Amino acid sequence: MKIVIIGGGFAGLNLVSELANNPEFDITLVDKNNYNFFPPLIYQLATAYLEPASISYPFRKYLRDIKNVHFRMGEMVAVKPDQNIAVLHNGELEYDVLIFATGAETNYFGMENVKKNAIPMKTLNDALEMRNKLLQRMEKATLNKNSRERRKYMNIVVAGGGPTGVEVSGMFAEMRRGILRREYPELSTSVSNVYLVDGADALLAPMSKESQQDTYDALTKLGVVVKLNTRVTDFKDDVVYLSNGETIQSKNLIWAAGVGCRAFDGIPAESFGRAKRMIVDGNNKVVNTNNIYAIGDTCYMEADAAFPQGHPQVAQVAIQQGKHLAKNLKRQLKGEALTPFKYKDKGSMAIIGKNKAVVDLPSPKLHFKGFFAWLMWLFIHLMSLLTYRNRLTTFWNWMVSYFSWDQPLRMIIRPEKKQRVAPGATEPPKV
User: Fold this and answer.
1) What is the mean pLDDT of residues 175-191?
2) Are 102 and 77 in contact (CB under 8 A)?
3) Closest Cα partner for 125 from 196, 74, 56?
4) Is there a catalytic annotation at residue 167?
């Protein structure tokens, strides 16, 4: 069976792992990047607590000993379902089964100014760009003698009260208390704030009331200004506009408020649901198609009785769907009946700051907070990294940060954009 998998995140790689070295499957894994990365820790890269190698790993190195899997770096463009062809930006691939594991992308809800000016938090590139921008703006703030203008460089507005928004807000609040005072003495007397804005009436909406309240209390104690029942409506000219009529002077709007999915040509329009998620049946097959499947964030399944409004777009759903689809593909080859997917909720967690986290476990129903929850968060995320190398480097960076209240990774490193003209030449060389 010739299988093409689009996307090498949680869903795609777990599917590959289950079918690895099985000669009955000829698999091509397609991804627009040549590496896998761990999204739950992306904010730690953005805030200079981890380096890229801690949370990423090259696909080709990971797959080199798996004989039935090939890697193709490319971006999905369209599908020709009548010909069983996946069209990439750099060629075409034939398939017997096509599987979308493309995840989600940032959703700006149609706000063009926000899309143009805000800092997203979805990819490795986003995280590096955010780190560079924020560090550069801190340097500019040290040169600005006007306190009102300086505050624009230093104020940080985080849109979205989910785990990412909570975690990045807590991180910035702790950095402002410690690193800012030690390394930027020019700014030690300047007034600035970290704002966390969310349209719901509580942070971490899917979690328990206890976790929501504990998180709110911990963030406000750190000095974060939390604004609930409030949405960002616009961002232009260094002003963040809120739905309650307020404005915040800031150059730094970090967007963690929502995700959507990408629609691909060739998939019937009626196969897409809200936020462009592909509607699938209980076996993850895209409706109105014969041999096309979708797993993870990009799919929307109503067939699971425990989740009639679809599954949450979290890592555990993607992992479990990837493994389950692999088992169903094996059953299909043997002519056996397929089994419908049932999501097993293993709990939710979020880190707030040093020694501060919240954890909810569904069965038995338990809630943890503080230091013990923080240790649980560290262990789960450490063990979820792809390789031992990732785990060791991440653990080392965490220990340095924990005992020193510091992290020596705050370098502004970005490619030179200017092309230099050689002596005597009239224009830059063509590349």
Assistant:
1) 79
2) no
3) 56
4) yes
Q: What is the mean pLDDT of residues 129-137?
A: 90
What are the tens digits of pLDDT across the range 204-250?
998 999 999 999 999 999 999 999 999 999 999 999 999 999 999 99
- Helix H or strand E encompassing 147: helix 147-154
Token readout for 338 is 């397929």
Phi and psi at 100, nearest 5°, equal -90, 125
Token duo for residue 164 = 């990412």
Answer for the pair 278, 301: CB distance below 8 angstroms, yes or no.
no
Q: Which H helix or E strand runs over 194?
A: strand 194-197
Read off the pTM: 0.89
Report whether pLDDT(428) > 60. Answer: no
- Helix 209-222 with 163-177: angle, nearest 10 deg: 20
Amino acid code (one letter) for 200: A
Q: Which position among 18, 139, 149, 167 bears the catalytic label?
A: 167
pLDDT band at 427 (very low <50, low <70, confident <90, very high): low
Q: Write the DSSP assignment of 345-377 as a string of letters.
A: ---EEEEEETTEEEEEEETTEEEEEHHHHHHHH
